[in-house]
Design brief:
Number of strands: 12
Strand content: 15-25%
Order of helices and strands: HHEHEEEEHEEHEHEHEHEHEHHHHHHHH
Largest sheet: 12 strands, mixed
Distance between the termini: 26 Å
Length: 415
């Protein structure tokens, strides 16, 4: 008797060339598509988040130390020497970061100019090999991002005129523009960095800013930026004063990479969650198909329901038949959806290339700057989707099951 509801629910799943059988297949396919789409989109969104985080960690500092008072850090060499002794610190670069005006042949651009020691440049900024030229910062040279160079209309060997921002604020001094030669062009795969940054030697940027010594910030990179516990210890060590003659104007505060780009990561998180919420409606619609299937089935099986009640089946047992029937449909859809999502993610790049051959550009490399579409499947996302569909499926099965259990046996047999 205990297994009879399961036996009857499985019996109702057998195709009999009826409308209910067709709707059952459609319902299972609907649940499958809903599960697969949510998992695939979540995986791709996670992959894009990973790529964005990787680009930020490669290009930007993990910790930026800025002065508590004033705008300039003095004694930067002694501070940098101390920071390099901290376990987990891989690179320390005193820098001057300022926005400047570049001009060449009538074109004007306003990138952020990074003044950094030439020997530390490639260690602090992991931007790969030069797109053109070299990363030599000796002499009056400047390195531009690929998009910035294109917008300015320059190439390696061209000269650009650099205007100091001090020109706008100095009242009793005149800062004449200087000419620097483009020695190299880099590309790190992110439009923001390729279009908005230029690099020159720390000495040249000091002269441009009218400074004899000091820097605006000390940038630190570590070997564990994504490990919250270890990274927080490194940040604490960076701001801990260990120099006996440390002056108040050289007291530092730390800005971590997550704080500096908080808006970006918040936007990515909101976008990912909102996309998942909207796509979950697909699963909800699919589960409504399951409810429609059960409603049709309760009408079709009305005489059998009346017979079961007449021979002594209780309401709960009648409900159990249709609840099990609905959950089997959801379970089958979930299994098929998981298999479909795995198959799509395993062949995602091949699918994208195949669609491109048909003229459907879903992932143009020129826009995203990536050779392949990124994705990463998180186990918690699978549990979240499966749990959501099971809850929806249970609620959708409950209403038809309740209707079936409340049918009057006399009217059901006469019907």
């Amino acid at each position: 008797m205990r297994s009879f509801p399961l036996f009857l629910a499985l019996k109702y799943l057998k195709p009999k060339r009826s409308v209910a059988s067709v709707i059952t297949v459609v319902s299972i396919l609907g649940v499958m598509l809903g599960v697969a789409v949510v998992i695939i989109v979540r995986s791709v969104m996670t992959g894009f988040g990973d790529i964005w985080e990787e680009k930020i960690l490669d290009f930007k500092p993990h910790v930026s130390l800025v002065p508590m008072q004033g705008n300039v850090i003095s004694g930067e060499d002694e501070i940098a020497t101390r920071l390099r002794t901290i376990p987990g610190v891989t690179c320390v670069t005193p820098e001057i970061d300022t926005r400047v005006l570049l001009s060449c042949r009538g074109r004007v651009l306003a990138p952020v100019l990074l003044g950094v020691d030439g020997d530390e440049f490639t260690r602090a900024y992991k931007i790969g090999t030069p797109r053109a030229g070299t990363f030599d910062l000796n002499g009056d040279s400047i390195v531009l991002g690929a998009t910035a160079a294109r917008n300015l209309g320059v190439w390696v060997g061209d000269e650009v005129v650099v205007y100091s921002p001090k020109t706008l604020v100095a009242q009793d001094e005149v800062f004449l523009p200087v000419k620097w030669k483009v020695s190299g062009i880099f590309s790190c795969g992110q439009h923001e960095y390729d279009s908005g940054y230029a690099v020159a030697s720390l000495a040249n940027v000091r002269d441009l800013m009218g400074m004899e010594k000091g820097v605006f910030a000390i940038h630190v990179k570590s070997d564990c930026p994504t490990d919250p516990e270890k990274f927080s210890k490194i940040v604490d060590e960076c701001v801990k004063p260990q120099t006996p003659n440390l002056k108040p104007q050289t007291e530092l505060r730390a800005i971590s990479w997550r704080e500096a780009d908080r808006e970006i990561f918040n936007a990515l998180a909101v976008e990912k969650n909102m996309t998942a919420l909207l796509l979950s409606l697909i699963s909800l619609v699919a589960v409504f198909c399951v409810m429609n299937t059960l409603l049709v089935l309760t009408v079709q099986k009305t005489p059998e329901i009346g017979l079961l009640k007449a021979i002594g089946f209780r309401r709960f047992e009648i409900m159990k038949v249709f609840m099990v029937h609905g959950m089997i449909q959801c379970g089958a859809g979930i299994v098929l959806g998981l298999c479909a999502s795995w198959a799509v993610l395993a062949n995602l790049q091949n699918i994208v290339e195949w669609l491109a051959k048909l003229g459907v550009e879903v992932f143009p490399a020129s826009v995203y700057g990536l050779a392949a579409i990124p994705h990463r499947l998180i186990v918690t996302d699978i549990f979240w989707v499966v749990g959501l569909v099971l809850v929806f499926g249970f609620l959708a099965s409950f209403v038809p099951a309740m209707i079936a259990s409340l049918k009057d046996p006399v009217r059901a047999l006469n019907g």
